[in-house]
Specification:
Number of strands: 6
Helix content: 25-40%
Largest sheet: 6 strands, mixed
Distance between the termini: 20 Å
Strand content: 35-45%
Mean pLDDT: 92
Strand order of the largest sheet: 2-1-6-5-4-3
């Protein structure tokens, strides 16, 4: 199932980048949980509609474009990847780099949890994938 989960993670990120809500929702468990990186003001978000809305709101200030997933580490029901994107503010023009680690948990091919981290070690530890 591991390779299928890696592919599902990529499809999910690509569906979000396209703004394809229906495709993104189809890849997620109805009770998916999202946990933003530690310095975000939001806590855990539950339910795929709420998670979608959170992701859209977080991405709204930036010009559109895809996120890149690299350094993928897979392990059965969990997948960790480095998620990057060069961001440019829609109104400010400010340029920043989005560079976080993301851990996906899957059950029966659907994402049940997604959590962001600052470092690779934090993400691997949280996913139980210490190398």
């Amino acid at each position: 199932m591991s390779q299928e989960n890696v592919e599902s993670m990529h499809r999910s990120v690509n569906a979000f980048a396209r703004g394809d809500r229906a495709a993104w929702l189809e890849l997620c468990d109805p009770q998916i949980e999202a946990v933003p990186v530690g310095d975000w003001p939001e806590a855990e978000i539950r339910g795929r509609d709420a998670v979608w809305d959170f992701l859209v709101a977080a991405d709204e200030p930036w010009e559109p474009g895809p996120y890149t997933l690299t350094e993928v580490v897979d392990g059965d029901d969990r997948v960790v990847a480095r998620m990057r994107k060069d961001l440019r503010g829609k109104s400010s023009g400010v340029e920043v780099e989005y560079d976080y680690w993301v851990a996906f948990t899957f059950d029966s091919g659907k994402a049940t949890r997604v959590e962001w981290f600052i470092t690779r070690d934090e993400a691997l530890e949280a996913a139980g994938l210490r190398e």
